[in-house]
């Protein structure tokens, strides 16, 4: 019985980690493609980026749902495993919520915010939301700088 619970938990966490890795890879490629489109002043490439943001958001929401379902299905008898799973799930929820552009419950201190705390993050504006607003405002220089910063941040996450 314990081995089945452990296998179930491990599989759920591995699936979540794999999904997060895929999403980070997609985000990295999207940022690089957008930076290239901005430099070439390619409106089609910018519009393609805006349209492509829907798919990762759906994947993130699906992954968050699976993580929450996995957390609720865990047995109370496995307190050590549950604690480890809760920390991992909390981290992954924070990471996915960060990429999605939504806030995690305010009562929880986000592990991601602890890991990625910087002086620039004081305004609590999500990087992807800031990117969207820069695209709408047509601020090319700021957009290019922001895309470069996002690319280096994504490399740190990888």
Automatic annotation (TrEMBL):
InterPro entries noted in UniProt: BPS1_pln
Keywords for this protein: Signal
Q: Which residues form the signal peptide?
A: 1-19
Keyword Signal found: yes
Q: What organism is the protein native to? A: Salvia splendens
- In its UniProt record, which GO terms are filed under biological process? root development; shoot system development
Record's protein name: Uncharacterized protein
Note the superkingdom of the native organism.
Eukaryota
């Amino acid at each position: 019985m314990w081995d089945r619970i452990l296998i179930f938990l491990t599989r759920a966490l591995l699936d979540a980690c794999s999904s997060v890795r895929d999403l980070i890879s997609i985000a990295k490629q999207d940022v690089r493609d957008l930076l290239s489109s901005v430099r070439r002043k390619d409106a089609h490439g910018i519009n393609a980026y805006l349209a492509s943001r829907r798919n990762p958001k759906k994947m993130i929401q699906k992954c968050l749902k699976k993580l929450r379902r996995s957390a609720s299905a865990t047995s109370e008898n496995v307190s050590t495993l549950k604690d480890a799973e809760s920390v991992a799930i909390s981290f992954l929820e924070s990471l996915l919520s960060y990429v999605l552009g939504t806030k995690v419950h305010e009562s929880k201190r986000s592990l991601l915010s602890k890991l990625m705390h910087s002086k620039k993050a004081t305004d609590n504006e999500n990087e992807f939301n800031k990117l969207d607003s820069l695209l709408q405002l047509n601020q090319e220089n700021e957009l290019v700088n922001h895309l470069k910063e996002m690319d280096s941040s994504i490399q740190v996450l990888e």
